[in-house]
Amino acid sequence: MMQMVEVDRRAVLAGFGVGAVAVAANARIGAPSAPHPRVRREIRDLERWFPDDLNRLKNAVAEMRKSRAGAMAWDKNAEIHSRRCGVPSGEIHRTLHFLPWHRAFLWATERNLQHAIGDETVSLAYWHWPVLGAVPASFRATPLAHDRTRLDLFAHEYAFQSAMDSAEHYVGKIEEREGWPVVTQLGFGGYDVVPGPLSVLEGTPHGSVHNALGKDMGNIKWSPRDPLFFGHHANLDRMWETWRGASHSARRRTEPWQDRLFAETVFEFFDLATGKTRNLRVAEVSETAALGYRYALPGEGVDGGQPVGTSTSGQNQNEVPDPALLGVPLASGDARIGLPTVAVSIAEEGKAKAILTVQGIQIPANQGGTVAIYLFDRKHGAFSPRRAAFVGTIGLVQQDTATEIAIALDVTTALRQFPIESGRIGVAIVPVGQDDALSLAVSGYAIEIVPQ
Ligand SMILES: [Cu+2]
């Protein structure tokens, strides 16, 4: 599958002609409408300290959800997302366009909300999952309520720390070793302009939080029908900004703004003001300041408020799922251990890391769920959570067609804490807290030791 992906990309690149065209990363979409950028705040902060801002958002959503001539502007806006899911070209999931497309979608939706009530100060809010670990009160009542399976979250579902820790470079790197495609760098928001492995961020917390809420939110195409979609994706957008750090940080420079296929792609959005399509180039959404907004920290600008959840390092033990929630492994097998190109050990901090790739994960149509990945020593025989190292969780969001995906995870810490003495590493994929059955087939597992 992945060799195919590489061939496709080269073919498309050839169509554009050789010679990269530089794209200014600071492209502007006209001046921001207000002298100060709009501030997107955490939902609980709006509830407690900024009721006027929350009311503006509620009124605008209520207006867009009203039926006019049998059609709702809200659903027309949501439909834009469905056109980019499970499509032969222009897919915005499992690609590099995951973060920029959703940023543009939030921005276009925010403009529509402003237009709906004729107030350009309407701003989206973000849902920082760990603050409450549940759906905020304001999103449980009309007009922000929606049909959802669950209102509480498990910590392993909003495990953003793993995504932050694994976010080495925005662009993942895939190498071929002994005829086997191996991910040697972990893409934060994707790997390529065509669908490739699922990035850590897109699996968890993105996919797992979608799955937790279920109903429309658990359906990749129609998730934006739920108003909380925009709170969820605003927090992912904020994580992107947090990961980038200060302007022009080294991380920001690793982003593929020089890649024309990435940066010059044009996406269409629904524009309520004209009833027509509004186009946005990916390069136009590189800077939040140019789009006229910024994110406040949770509790920012509030007397006595404490910023929370701002740490971007360290392991969060709460992310390990409760063993009582684990089901029977959906798939397990031995990992191929790639020979390191130079003799390095992962035991020493900063010398090398171990990357696990799981290839050819077949997900049947209309099935989704959150799975946990474990490593275990094969000398003990079959998998048991009590004798295994937890690696991370991956949220696989339901699609209406069967899909094949690959995932890559940093297993350095897991292997340090749980040395595999026999050298035979087993990998298990275990469903977490699922009522409905999910079935998976996997073609193989590989662990690569990558010098740093
Ligand atoms: Cu999406």
UniProtKB/TrEMBL annotation:
Keyword Metal-binding belongs to the record: yes
Entries under Gene3D superfamilies matching the protein: Di-copper center containing domain from catechol oxidase
PROSITE patterns noted in UniProt: TYROSINASE_1, TYROSINASE_2
One Pfam family it belongs to: Tyrosinase
Domain Tyrosinase copper-binding, chain residue ranges per copy: 93-110, 226-237
Keywords assigned: Copper, Metal-binding
MF (Gene Ontology): metal ion binding; oxidoreductase activity
TM region positions: none
Name this polypeptide is given: Tyrosinase copper-binding domain-containing protein
Record organism: Sphingomonas gilva
